[in-house]
Amino acid sequence: MTTSSLILFNKPYGVQSQFRDDSGNPHTTLAPYFDDKTLRIAGRLDATSEGLLILTSDGRINKAITQPPRAATFDSSSKQGKTYLVQVEGVPTEGQLTALADGVMLKDGKTLPAIVQLVAVADLPVKLWPRNPPIRERKNVPTSWLMLTIYEGKNRQVRRMTAHVGLPCLRLIRWSVAGFELGSLGVGEFVRVHLNEERRQQLGLKA
Fold first, then answer.
1. What is the rounded distance in angstroms from the CA atom of residue 7 to the CA atom of residue 154?
2. 3-state DSSP: the chain helix, strand, coil percent, rounded to 5?
3. SS3 for 76?
4. Widest CA span of the chain, in angstroms?
């Protein structure tokens, strides 16, 4: 029986989703956190985004998580979604939430239908940690939190989606990927998960 595993990592703000940096970029890389040279990233996060990053040495797992669905056969019930906790500037209207859920037209095409919910801070699935540096705050301008699940991976997609409907993104935390959740992992912490046969089948992996 094949044994597969992956790593769930709570990526801190300012850390790049790569192990080497030859460009002189001031952002930190993953190198201080992992010494396993066989690990590959299954779905990158921007340096300015936080939360769940999945790493694996198994190319089949990587492909199962990162390969986006075809729009022509899209079915959210059978695809590997990614859920983000998104702090936005302003209070969303029903129209803005509907637009995000239906899909918005970006420069590289219309986004697939998404699941979006306005959430109170107390109802977020994770206890928020302080961000360094803190988000920018404007007096007399409220902020809100959304839970947004998408089924594709356009570049900086969530930020562009919320900006498109007039809700600038202030903070972005990835909560789950393909059914794997951040859980109670602290910032910079990780855990290795061994996949049983049921989980392998959910990812579409054969024995």
1. 23
2. 20, 30, 50
3. helix
4. 59
> What residue segments make up the domains of the chain, in order of their start?
4-202
Q: CA-to-CA distance for 78 and 64, rounded, in angstroms?
A: 12
> Tokens representing 35?
């010494």
Question: Do residues 141 and 90 make contact, with C-beta atoms less than 8 angstroms apart?
Answer: yes
| Average pLDDT of the segment spanning 85-101 | 97
| Superfamily of domain 4-202 in the CATH hierarchy | Alpha-L RNA-binding motif (3.30.70.1560)
Query: Which positions are catalytic?
Result: 46
pLDDT average, residue stretch 134-150: 91
How far from each other are the two terminal CA atoms of the chain, in whole angstroms? 7
Handedness of CA 31, 34, 35, 38 (dihedral sign): negative
How far is 139 from 130, CA to CA, in rounded Å?
20
User: How many angstroms separate the Cα of 138 from the Cα of each of 13, 100, 125, 164?
Assistant: 21, 24, 26, 20
